[in-house]
Each structure stands twice: as C-alpha cells, then as structure tokens.
Amino acid sequence: MSTETGPRGPSVTPSGAISSNPLPAGGPRVPLPTDKELVLKVVPMPADCNANGDIFGGWVMAQVDVAGSIVPARYTQGRMATVAVNEFIFKQPVRVGDILSFFAGVTRIGRTSITVSVEVYAERYTTQGQYVKVTEATLTYVAIDAEGRPRPIPQTAG
Ligand SMILES: CC(C)(COP(=O)(O)OP(=O)(O)OC[C@H]1O[C@@H](n2cnc3c(N)ncnc32)[C@H](O)[C@@H]1OP(=O)(O)O)[C@@H](O)C(=O)NCCC(=O)NCCS
Description:
The protein is mostly beta strands. 13% of the residues lie in helices and 35% in strands. The chain contains 1 helix and 7 strands; from the N terminus they run βββαββββ. It has a 5-stranded antiparallel sheet with strand order 3-5-6-7-4, covered by helices on one side. A two-stranded antiparallel sheet has the order 1-2. The longest helix has 20 residues. The site of coenzyme A has 14 residues, from strand 4 and strand 7.
C-alpha cells in the first residue's frame, strides 16, 4: 500500500513506518541482550542528521561514548577518560525519531582500565517493541587522577 503526505506532514504506512522515513527493508528484528544493562535511551532529532538525511555517525559515536562510560564510572569512582574505541560497527542506519536504546556490559577490568561492549537498538517511533540492532562497539576507559595520569581502579569498586 502506498503512503501519502497529509496536511500535517508525512503519513504512516500500515507497517507503522513514516512515509518520509521508511524502515530499512532488510533490517532484522532481534531480541534485546540479556547480558547487558540498559544505560541510556535517546531520540535523535533533525539537527543530528548528515547530508543524506540519516543520523550522523559522529552523533551516534558520541552517544555510545556516553553510554559506555556509565558502568565503568561505578568502578573508577572518579575522573576517567576514553582511551580507545577498539571497535565500532554501524550495522543499520539510524533515522530521525528512532528510539535508541543503549545496552552496555563490562568485558574486561584491568589495572587502570575497563573495557565495555555497547550495543544500540532502534525502535521505529510508530512500531515500538520491534528492535533493530543498529550499532555495536567496544570502548576502553581509563581511571585518571587530578593530573590526568592513569590511576589504579579501586579494589572495592563494582
Ligand atoms: C588515557 C590516558 C591518560 C592513558 O595514558 P597512557 O600513558 O597511555 O596510559 P597507559 O599506557 O599506562 O595505559 C593505561 C591503560 O589504558 C590501556 N590502554 C592504553 N592504550 C590502549 C588502547 N589503545 N586500547 C585499549 N587499552 C589501552 C592500557 O592497557 C592500560 O590499562 P591497564 O592498566 O588496565 O592495563 C592518556 O592516553 C590520555 O590522556 N588520552 C587522552 C584521553 C582523552 O582525551 N579522551 C577523550 C578523547 S575524545
């Protein structure tokens, strides 16, 4: 069935997609991770788009950096810095109005650093409850002191 633009903007298809913002045809629907914690939910806005009208990858990376830092902050109990984006995969485009859910879990705790796996899932605004995995990433954070030097992660942390 085709869609039309109504007097108040884009119309909604029977599948729930917004006509100006269709679902990716092949985007697989997946269950949410059970081994990670939901640390952040955010909805990207038109100001976050690239020239193609999709959400700018750098915006997604910034959100992943924030989301990834939340669990390590429990361990570092103080100032820390991102030392590495070990891996970053954009699996599906993110679109304006998607509800993004960021799941994170610690994969390694070193002497001064913590490595985290982050997975991002999108719900299209009008088809909530159906998730598409859009991004996965691995980042490493380092506990730092007041001078910005690495410091040991407190033993009592976590
Ligand atoms: C983070 C920072 C203090 C680390 O200083 P450093 O002298 O490189 O520290 P070290 O070599 O002793 O490494 C510290 C920890 O980071 C880890 N690390 C360093 N480089 C890494 C990399 N490329 N990937 C994964 N882990 C890394 C080390 O393994 C070590 O972890 P461990 O103690 O648990 O084994 C320093 O690199 C820094 O200030 N970087 C800028 C941080 C920043 O501005 N981030 C925001 C960028 S947008």
